[in-house]
Amino acid sequence: MRRLAITGHRALPPEVARAVDSALRARLRDLGPHVTGLSCLADGADALFARAVLDTGGTLEAVVPAERYRDGLPEWHRETYDALLAAAALVHRLPYVESTSHAHLEAGRHLVEHCDELLAVWDGCPPRGPGGTADIVDYARGRERHVTVVWPEGATR
User: SUPFAM superfamilies in the record, alphabetically (predicted)?
Assistant: First the structure.
């Protein structure tokens, strides 16, 4: 079974989110139903990927960076997060309490260490802070993981 993980930007503009969702679903359809998808389930790329994995017949594994991770998510996203977490076949819980940039960086590293391919919904820009998408892409490339960047041409955040 192929194992894909997601890293990517949050708070995507609606038109970018639609294009990203379409691209993620196309990649998953190409691979068929024997896919395990790993995601931290945050708003944006993580949740789009998790929903696409489930919708295409794959198996979802959730990675929870910290005990208080859910508290740091936007209130409007928590119902989606809860539903995706409940749908996960396996939940990887990291040993952190606070949802800090360090916990997020470690969650990203965990995703990389447990996947065959990293899908990165990334605009190609340098990191805005530790633990972001660019850091996880750099880590994956350093570990010689296959990285597929998904970013609609001409899109901005």
Answer: MCP/YpsA-like
Token readout for 117 is: 């391919």
Q: What is the pLDDT of residue 128?
A: 80
pLDDT of res. 9:
94
Q: Which amino acid is at 133?
A: T
45, pLDDT greater than 90: yes
- Alpha-carbon span 59 to 11, nearest angstrom: 25
Domain 17-42+49-149 fold: Rossmann fold (3.40.50)
CA dihedral 141, 45, 34, 110 (to 10 degrees): 50
The structural domains of the chain, with segments of one domain joined by +, span 17-42+49-149
Kindly provide the b/e burial profile for residues 99-112, where b requires at least 16 CB atoms within 10 angstroms of the residue's own CB. Answer: bbeebbbbbbbbbb
The one-letter amino acid code at 94 reads L
Helix runs in 14-77, H state only:
14-31, 45-55
- CA–CA dist 57, 152 (Å, integer): 25
How confident is the model over 81-123, as pLDDT tens digits?
A: 999 999 999 999 999 999 999 999 999 999 999 999 999 999 9
Q: What is the 3-state secondary structure (H, E, C) of 40-55?
A: CCCCCHHHHHHHHHHH
Instruction: Give dist(CA 85, CA 143) in Å, integer.
Output: 28
